[in-house]
Every structure is written in C-alpha cells, then in structure tokens.
Amino acid sequence: MSLQGKFFKLSNGNTIPAVGYGTGTKWFKSALGDIDTTLVDTLVQAIKLGFTHIDGAQIYKTSREIGLAIKKSGIKREDLFLTDKFFSGPSTLPKSTSPNPYDALKQSLAEFQLEYVDLYLLHTPYISKESHGYDVVEAWNYLEKLQDEGLVKNIGVSNFAVEDLQKILNSNPKHKPVVNQIEYSAYLQNQTPGVVEFAKKNGILIEAYGPSAPITKGKGGPLDPVLEKLAKKYNKTEAQIILRWVLDTGVLPVTTSSKEDRIKAFLELTEFKLDAEDVKEISEVGKEKIFRQFFTEYSRFD
Ligand SMILES: NC(=O)C1=CN([C@@H]2O[C@H](COP(=O)(O)OP(=O)(O)OC[C@H]3O[C@@H](n4cnc5c(N)ncnc54)[C@H](OP(=O)(O)O)[C@@H]3O)[C@@H](O)[C@H]2O)C=CC1
Ligand SMILES: O=C1Nc2ccccc2C1=O
C-alpha cells in the first residue's frame, strides 16, 4: 500500500504504477460507435512517453480504443497496467438487464482484444437482489472467480463507503479488495465519512479520481495562493503540486489530459516530493472548501 518510487505496493504483494491515465470523463462515449481516433492517438503518445497505467470502465465504451492503442504502442502487455470496471449502475438504477460481472469482463476482454486486465473494480456499490438478481457480496464472488481463473490480476471497488466495504470484508472473502477508487482531491478529502482512514487501516489503496479539481473546475478557492506559492518554491506547475499532494497523502491519482505537455508533467510526479509542512498546509487549507463533482448524492455528508 505504500508508495515506492514509481509504484504503490498493494496488500496482496502486487504493484501498481503510481499515476493512472483515465479514459472516462473527457473521453467518455455514450455508445461503442466509431473508434475515437483522437483517444487512440493520445493514448499511444501517453504510453510512448512512459505512462503504464490506464484506467478504463465498461461504461466509458473506450475499451476498443485502449486495446488498439496498446497494440499500436508496441509496448509489451506485461509492462502495462490496465483497469476495467463493471458498471453496477447509479443509485437510481431500476432493474439491471446487463450481464453479471463475470460475463461483462469477458465481453470487455473481447473489446480490448486482451487476455486479462490487471485490476477489475465494481464501479459502484449499488447492487442488490432486487436490481441485479445478486447482492454485493455475490457480485464480489464473481470478481474472485475471475481472479482465480487468471482473467484479472487484482480486484477492487469504486465509490464504496465504509459500510459497503464492511459488507465484503465481513463476508470472509477469499480475496480482499485491494483498491477503492473514489472522488478525492484537496477539496474533497473524504468522499463519504471516514472512508480514507478505514481503507488505509484495512490495506485498501485509495485511488483518486477528479484529483485536479482545485486547479480546474474548483479554482477560485482558498488554495489558489498556496498553490501559486508552492509552484514557485518547487519550480513545478500548480497541477503537479496538487497531484503530488495526492501521492504524498498515500493516495494514487487517476488523471487525464489530451495535451502532451500535461501528460509529460504527470510523468514527473514521482520525481519530486513535497515537504511535510507543505503537505499539511494543503490538507488544512483544502478543508476550508468542499468541491464535489461526481455522485452528488453523497453531498448529504458535506
Ligand atoms: N470510478 C469513478 O466513478 C470515476 C472514475 N473516473 C476516472 O478518473 C479519470 C480522471 O478523472 P478527471 O476528473 O478527468 O481527472 P482530473 O481532475 O485530473 O481532471 C483532468 C481534466 O482536467 C484537465 N486538466 C489536466 N491538467 C490541467 C491543467 N494543468 N489545467 C487545466 N486543466 C487541466 C484535463 O483536460 P486537458 O485535456 O485540457 O488537459 C482533463 O479534462 C477519468 O478519466 C476516469 O478514468 C472519473 C470519474 C468517476
Ligand atoms: O469517468 C467517469 N465519469 C463519470 C460520471 C458519472 C459517474 C461515473 C463516472 C466515471 O467513471
């Protein structure tokens, strides 16, 4: 679970590259449709520049683009780390007609044209007998079966709160979740109450999506002068400072960009480190503002 150079070590002993490149948000497609050649080209460029961790999901509909980019990049499969997510639905899902997580992963692999993914997540905790025909523990059992068959190397969850994690941990699982991917930034230090601390105590690595919020959509807050000051101190961009803060809090940032200079800047994140007092200042000043972009039902906790 700790950051060691360019990798985090997971609780099962495997490693995961310390910064993820996302293919959701700005790349999100509503249908498989035509291949997004801009995404393929940008991913090939990102991989050639040195990105080895790609974040995908069933619902992004970008699996074919990822698979094509991997092939075109010429990089060996074992040198890349690919995440996929089973789309379990929003909290308002009436009745799921989608395949179960086991069948969904097989479908994704066909789209990627790959033999395995490195990490497979339940995208949300909104799974019940009523909506899916199986509960969240049974959904987890499908992921365990995939791991046992070698189709996924590691399994985890996303957008899970403490009580959702407890359901899995209390079921005496054969494989525990190694990751919980949640919205996390200096302006949202807990997606749901206590989740970061609980995950750390239980050996679950937190992955942060939306990590750049304080310098993108959440700009105009108390961190503005702090980030300006620290960017000068370290001779880095404000984006690098705010993403390095994520790493320095023991969390793995999943970010994205279409721009070469920003992709290169992401790759420098493991080459410097913030002083403890600067990490503390960002954490404390960041708590003065809450900025949440996704799963706004959790704003009841703000
Ligand atoms: N599990 C889940 O439920 C979710 C998972 N995710 C995953 O996380 C990934 C990343 O999430 P996202 O919110 O996009 O991450 P970030 O908060 O890092 O934002 C990245 C966005 O900000 C822009 N950006 C990057 N650097 C800068 C900069 N220096 N100045 C201004 N704008 C900048 C990028 O666009 P540009 O091209 O202009 O650089 C990009 O659109 C997603 O793609 C997805 O894979 C996201 C949401 C939910
Ligand atoms: O990338 C994503 N964008 C989203 C918007 C809403 C819910 C989930 C997601 C993603 O995973």
Automatic annotation (TrEMBL):
This is 2-dehydropantolactone reductase. The active site is at Y60. It comes from Scheffersomyces stipitis (strain ATCC 58785 / CBS 6054 / NBRC 10063 / NRRL Y-11545) (Yeast). It catalyses: isatin + NADPH + H(+) = 3-hydroxyindolin-2-one + NADP(+); (R)-pantolactone + NADP(+) = 2-dehydropantolactone + NADPH + H(+). The keyword Transferase does not apply. GO terms for molecular function: 2-dehydropantolactone reductase (A-specific) activity; aldose reductase (NADPH) activity; alpha-keto amide reductase activity; alpha-ketoester reductase (NADPH) activity; oxidoreductase activity, acting on NAD(P)H as acceptor. The keyword NADP applies. Gene3D superfamilies: NADP-dependent oxidoreductase domain. Belongs to the aldo/keto reductase family. Keywords: NADP, Oxidoreductase.
